[in-house]
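Example record for the data management plan.
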Amino acid sequence: MVSKAMSATDQPTQQRTREQTLERLIARVDRLLEGAGRTSARFTRWRLAIFVAGVVCSVIPYKLQWYHLGNAAMGSFLVVFLTVAHYHSRLETRMHRLRLWRGIKHTHLARLRLYWHAIHTVATPSPDSHPFATDLDITGPHSLFSLLNTTVSSNGRDRLAAWLLNQPSSQTNWPTHWLARQLLVKELASLSLFRDRLVLEASLIGEVALDGHRIHAALQAPPGFPGLVPLLAIETVLAAGTLVLALASALVGVRGYWPLSFGAYAIIYMLISGQTAPIFGRALSLHHELEKLGAVFRYLERRSYNVTPQLGRLCAPLTSGARRPSEYVQRFSRVCQALSVRAHPLVHLAINAVGPWDLWWISRFQRLHKQVLPDISTWLDKLAELEAASALGNFAYLNPAYCWPSLLSPAGNGRPATIVAQALGHPLIPAAQRVTNDLKLWSVGRILIITGSNMSGKSTFLRTVGINTCLAQAGAPVCAASFEWTWVRISCCIRVDDSLEAGLSFFYAEVKRLKRLLDEARDRSAPPVLFLIDEIFKGTNNRERLIGSKSFVKALAGSNGFGLITTHDLELAELEKEIPNGANAHFRETVEANELRFDYRLRPGPCPTTNALRIMALEGLPVPEGKD
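Corresponding structural encoding:
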């Protein structure tokens, strides 16, 4: 195991170049916005001058009773004013796009530099009893998910989380699916404009993420109600009869029978108003979501996919066939907008007094629902897949020095379970402070016992191994110079919390976690388990901790698993002699000018030093003389 430290001067040239590229793009957009701002100010002054001149040049002829000249002047200035206002509005729209584009680039730069305060995070709670989500910082405020998430819809967000958290436990056909996903992510990594435009088109409609779940739920329940078509026909006849009778009464002098037909029309309308109200609620909630969905689909349909075969195959259901998603979504949006007039009671009553507005648009909603329902799930699913892959592609673009992992043939087919990595680093640590290490794990039963001082980097190294394996199995690049592995199930016991609500002490919570981990490792019907255990049995006394730890490690050595265990108990390092595939490694520290220095480098063998008493002494706590 060889270690490599990455200082600020060793930061990869490619990454510095990517950062400089983003800075230049932001500076260019700033210059464009500055120039556009000056032009917009001139447009404002021109509009004011045209308005004032128009008023003067129109009022004076009217005062002199030159009415034709006054009308001509008013019309001319109105045309000029509207023309200038049109171009001013177009300029403001372009400025709005530029501001959103600049915001996207600023967020990319924040992701690259790990400026968490500038990265918009979405709460993604960890599933209960998840084997590694909390331990590896996959979810949470400053987590891998927050760093990756560039999705524009709830479906895309959930799909990205599923790729990270719900990695398949079966190897059947999975290597083929994984390879196709990695190829898709590689294609998207080179399509910076495409990825950013996808986010931009959705952001132009609104900053809030598209709620695909709401769309799906609203379209699952059939719209309308029994007897809709006959009622629409009756109301249409009554409305038409009322109009004819009213005109006949006003123009020809026929007796006023129209109140009778209108009264029947109004009674039916009031009787069915309770049945139309829920449909209005659904339309109101769908309107904004459909506008955003339509904007995204229109962008995807305009693009050519000749040079991106993986992306083309994914988007084929969205861009080909008789049913174009954007067309149907746009129709749905218009129907929802028409039904949303109910939000304005006076206008709503006036329109429905003339004709059966609600019933007509509900019938349109019903027809569109039948046409779209067979495909809407597929459309949302493909969009979610695209968004999740785009997020991973963006991660690859921002980190060009990261390597693409290589998936080896499944363990058990003549190949031992394997994780071999060079210059493996933690992606959530800034590059200037990141220290990388090499790792080689071969075959089930292989256990690397890592000893070391407090704060020497043991826990961080466990998370480094786990988070990069999680990235690799999601189809993303990893923070390493090279990474080869066979498919594994990840299971951790790193961050254990007691639970007052469940009545669990820290030690008992740890025991339950370790029992679940051991049960998973004993399952030989699934891929091997990569276990990562930090400070095993730290919740009990020294004697029982050592006895329990030795027994547990020996049980793991005979299981369908391999991995790393950290400990403060130097006696546990002696297990290297008792288990066939055991090995020791350690982190150490040095003391310089009465300060502890850590290089975070992994070295072979058990740790030769300890630092607990030294830390106590440096902080002024009493320790026996000569023991620090």
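Summary line stored alongside the record: The chain is about 55% helix and 10% strand.
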